[in-house]
Write a structure and sequence with these properties.
Blueprint (H helix, E strand, L loop, with lengths): L2 H17 L20 E29 L2 E3 L3 E6 L19 E12 L6 E11 L2 E4 L3 E5 L4 E11 L8 E8 L2 E29 L1
């Protein structure tokens, strides 16, 4: 075999090698041609949350009511004095009834506040009557402390006339006292507030 024959044989081998199909690439044994599924697991974690918490709370409240105070009125105490004509002035009218020309009538009445703890204001008026006429006095008012007594006092000067006529009087409680009576009362109410808390929850974690 000459050298041309050897060269021709080598060229055929080279061409035959180039024409052979390529070796296939091996697939990854792990993927096997499919996207791998992630591995997942359940874990426990803390989660913050807000909860409304309510409870019963005690408290003191003042409750008041208006009430008329109890009282006792005494009998009317009357004084009649001569206020004119010489020696009779200042004497008891009964001593010189027919010689006295003018007189002073004084009427008094006690009011006792019977309430053990409340003070109050009483308004009292008086009316003097004489020979068909009436004299209404301006009312008096007084604050009376618990279990205390106050004397309401009224006077009227008048002419006796001829024949002499003695005046009469009446005393009336116009406005009884009204007090504000208060007591401390225990009560309860529901109070609510938001409280921050935590709880354990499940979560799925995938790698």
């Amino acid at each position: 075999m000459n050298r041309y024959s050897i060269l021709a044989a080598l060229m055929l081998i080279f061409i035959a090698g180039c024409l052979q199909p390529g070796v296939p690439i091996e697939e990854n044994e792990e993927t096997n041609g499919v996207t791998p599924t992630p591995e997942c697991r359940i874990v426990y974690v803390e989660e913050p949350y807000t909860e409304e918490v309510c409870q019963e709370v005690g408290y003191i409240e003042e409750e008041c009511e208006m009430k008329e105070l109890e009282y006792t009125s005494g009998r009317i105490m009357k004084t009649d004095l001569c206020s004119a004509d010489g020696d009779c002035v200042g004497k008891n009218l009964y001593e010189c009834f027919y010689t006295c020309t003018a007189a002073m009538k004084r009427c008094r009445m006690n009011i006792t506040n019977n309430d053990p703890k409340l003070a109050g204001t009483w308004v009292v008026g008086a009316t003097f009557s004489y020979d068909g006429a009436a004299f209404v006095k301006n009312p008096e008012q007084a604050m009376i402390e618990p279990n205390e007594t106050y004397t309401f006092d009224f006077e009227q000067i008048y002419a006796l006339g001829s024949p002499p006529v003695m005046a009469t009087c009446t005393i009336t409680v116009i406005y009884p006292a009204v007090g504000r009576d208060c007591v401390q009362v225990e009560k309860t109410r529901i109070e609510c507030q938001d409280v921050e808390k935590t709880r354990i929850i499940q979560e799925e974690v995938c790698d």
